[in-house]
Amino acid sequence: MLNEMLNTDRLFQTSLAGDDRALEPLFNDLRSNGYAIISNQAYKVTAKGREIFDTFMKRYTEYLKVYDVYSFVDLEKGEFAFSSYYDFETDDDWFNFTDDERFDDLRIAVAIFKKLDPAEIVFMSFLNENRFGTDETGWQQFVMSNEPWDEIEEICHTAIKPEEVGEDAMVDMIKQGSQLMLDLMKEEQNRNQGGGATGGYTTETYTVVEEETVDYYQPYYYDPFYISPVWMLPLFLW
Questions:
Q1: Residue 22 placed within a domain
Q2: How many structural domains comprise the chain?
Q3: Where does residue 5 rank: exposed (0-12), middle (13-18), buried (19+ CB within 10 A)?
Q4: Structural domain for 118, as ranges
Q5: CA–CA distances in Å: residue 79 to residues 69, 82, 83, 101
Q6: Residue 66 resides in a domain
Q7: What's the confidence (pLDDT) of residue 217?
């Protein structure tokens, strides 16, 4: 909702109408926590709300760059689907390749291993898949329903856990994933310098600009126990 208020032309009046009425409890929470105020009979994001949004987007940027590489891993062979990412010319070809039972999703296992909140990782994957897109009719009811949050909880419950993989294997997978992430970043930068697409990850709702270079990640991310400071920033300021 903070993204919708900050980065679109949409103005939410205090006299919510139509499907927007379902959002009233959310706006009440935003106001009670100091993330939004009422100004000229409309809801506006406060400096505190923008700070929280910026913190989350830093984490989301890291999720896309660092953690998404673990979404398709062949545990038996120790292979990452993303090592072949640039072998495919179309998204459909890539999706067909990754739609294989041999690939397991290790994002939750890596998050738990690094002592991060796995629910936040799943939520970010939902954002990347545009599950919370605001272009569809009735999105307000979907956001305010229990449906997406119950699904996130179920995914966290059923996902592969670190103990199922084993500590030695987890360490090895994270080391491989870190190296692959850096290799992919270098390849993307080379392609961009050659006149390709501009840097950044784009979804239907969000655009995350690549501000950090490969050197930013290189000194630390080889350590499987390293946790970026962005995950230490408070996400909620009460």
A1: no
A2: 1
A3: buried
A4: 51-231
A5: 11, 9, 8, 13
A6: yes
A7: 64
